[in-house]
Amino acid sequence: MSEELNAEFETAESGVSNVYPAQCSSLRKNGYVVIKGRPCKIVEMSTSKTGKHGHAKVHLVGIDLFSGKKYEDICPSTHNMDVPVVKRADYQLVDISADNFLSLMQESGDLREDIKIPDGELGTEIRSKFESGEDILCTVLCAMGSEMVIATKPNSGK
């Protein structure tokens, strides 16, 4: 029996989970929630009165953190929903490769070259600031195994 348990733990992933449960009634506007398997920021939230089956329902509207797509869900207020662990980090932009990957330097001095330049206005802004020689920091949002640059700011920490 103990050998079976050990084998199970050896194959388990180390580290922390990328979501945690939270009671639906404890969620708040501008917080985060997983709707239809996607990490979302809550932009609208309303609670209905207790019905004949005894549960108040919470209606959630969320915007996907990475695609900007709108998702909706209704959940009894006493039930749990997954909340994504969302991390932000600032990296200094060092280079942009020919295949549109960013070279980003962490505070430790290590380079990351696994994040693509974002589409749309932000990607154009990053490229033009880089080409004009500006020293910028890229804010990277990380949730549920996905990472994306969501903003830039001037690097004043020289």
UniProtKB/TrEMBL annotation:
<protein>
    <recommendedName>
        <fullName>Eukaryotic translation initiation factor 5A</fullName>
    </recommendedName>
</protein>
<dbReference type="InterPro" id="IPR001884">
    <property type="entry name" value="IF5A-like"/>
</dbReference>
<keyword id="KW-0396">Initiation factor</keyword>
<feature type="domain" description="Translation initiation factor 5A C-terminal">
    <location>
        <begin position="85"/>
        <end position="153"/>
    </location>
</feature>
<dbReference type="InterPro" id="IPR014722">
    <property type="entry name" value="Rib_uL2_dom2"/>
</dbReference>
<dbReference type="GO" id="GO:0005737">
    <property type="term" value="C:cytoplasm"/>
</dbReference>
<dbReference type="InterPro" id="IPR019769">
    <property type="entry name" value="Trans_elong_IF5A_hypusine_site"/>
</dbReference>
<dbReference type="GO" id="GO:0045905">
    <property type="term" value="P:positive regulation of translational termination"/>
</dbReference>
<dbReference type="InterPro" id="IPR012340">
    <property type="entry name" value="NA-bd_OB-fold"/>
</dbReference>
<dbReference type="Pfam" id="PF01287">
    <property type="entry name" value="eIF-5a"/>
</dbReference>
<keyword id="KW-0648">Protein biosynthesis</keyword>
<dbReference type="Pfam" id="PF21485">
    <property type="entry name" value="IF5A-like_N"/>
</dbReference>
<dbReference type="InterPro" id="IPR008991">
    <property type="entry name" value="Translation_prot_SH3-like_sf"/>
</dbReference>
<comment type="similarity">
    <text>Belongs to the eIF-5A family.</text>
</comment>
<dbReference type="GO" id="GO:0003743">
    <property type="term" value="F:translation initiation factor activity"/>
</dbReference>
<keyword id="KW-0963">Cytoplasm</keyword>
<keyword id="KW-0251">Elongation factor</keyword>
<dbReference type="GO" id="GO:0003746">
    <property type="term" value="F:translation elongation factor activity"/>
</dbReference>
<keyword id="KW-0385">Hypusine</keyword>
<dbReference type="GO" id="GO:0003723">
    <property type="term" value="F:RNA binding"/>
</dbReference>
<dbReference type="InterPro" id="IPR048670">
    <property type="entry name" value="IF5A-like_N"/>
</dbReference>
<dbReference type="GO" id="GO:0045901">
    <property type="term" value="P:positive regulation of translational elongation"/>
</dbReference>
<dbReference type="InterPro" id="IPR020189">
    <property type="entry name" value="IF5A_C"/>
</dbReference>
<comment type="function">
    <text>Translation factor that promotes translation elongation and termination, particularly upon ribosome stalling at specific amino acid sequence contexts. Binds between the exit (E) and peptidyl (P) site of the ribosome and promotes rescue of stalled ribosome: specifically required for efficient translation of polyproline-containing peptides as well as other motifs that stall the ribosome. Acts as ribosome quality control (RQC) cofactor by joining the RQC complex to facilitate peptidyl transfer during CAT tailing step.</text>
</comment>
<dbReference type="GO" id="GO:0043022">
    <property type="term" value="F:ribosome binding"/>
</dbReference>
<keyword id="KW-0694">RNA-binding</keyword>
